[in-house]
Design brief:
By secondary structure, the protein is mostly beta strands. The protein contains no helices and 21 strands. The chain has a four-stranded antiparallel β-sheet, with no helix packed on it. The chain has a four-stranded antiparallel β-sheet with strand order 7-8-9-10, with no helix packed on it. The radius of gyration is 17 Å and the shape is globular.
Length: 196
């Protein structure tokens, strides 16, 4: 569906080649939208202005429960996921090539990520033992290095990060425990990222 701003209603837009009902990741680029499917090492691609989904680039590892984030007009990262929770893979939409970055110290899946200036903020999710994470990793785009960031006040998984007016927010998700097991209620708390 696509949102018609004038009528404030959702209109049919396109049909995916296969049913898609499980957490994956997507990223919007000037060339189009990339969608990483469940349990596949391939992706889908919707070219800008088109309503037909095409096969996208093959991925190094499955991107189930990973996050994807644009780092320039022509490059994006796929970070973490069930198959390889420490992976950081860069895709160049101009050359159609993947480049591996150094792996994360803290593996994650069901996490979220968002660009904040010259960094990518990676937060929350689950570790390999399905323990909820409140921790944050700060990934430098320029140096391809990472460092720990501050913890969220609540551990959460399957949540969204959004940027608004140069601020970064973590919204919803499941969990609600300071740390611990993969359980807990849906969250209504919104947290704001503070880089200080």
């Amino acid at each position: 569906f696509s949102l018609d701003a004038s009528s404030q209603s959702w209109l049919p837009h396109s049909t995916l080649p296969t049913p898609y009902n499980f957490a994956g990741s997507s990223v919007s680029m000037p060339t189009g939208v990339y969608l990483f499917e469940r349990h596949h090492d391939v992706s889908l691609f919707l070219p800008t202005g088109s309503t037909e989904w095409l096969n996208g680039p093959n991925v190094t590892n499955e991107a189930l429960n990973a996050c994807a984030v644009a780092i320039s007009a022509s490059k994006f990262l796929v970070i973490g996921g069930v198959q390889d929770p420490t992976q950081v893979e860069e895709f160049d939409t101009v050359t159609s090539t993947w480049t591996s970055w150094p792996p994360l110290d803290q593996g994650r899946w069901y996490h979220s990520c968002m660009r904040a200036g010259s960094n990518v903020v990676i937060a929350g999710g689950l570790d390999l033992d399905q323990h909820l994470l409140a921790s944050t990793t700060i990934l430098s785009i320029e140096h391809k290095s990472h460092r720990p960031g501050g913890d969220m006040s609540l551990a959460r998984f399957s949540f969204q990060m959004v940027s608004h007016e140069d601020k970064l927010f973590a919204l919803g998700g499941g969990g609600g425990l300071a740390s611990g097991d993969y359980e807990g209620p849906a969250l209504d708390l919104v947290e704001e990222w503070n880089e200080a």
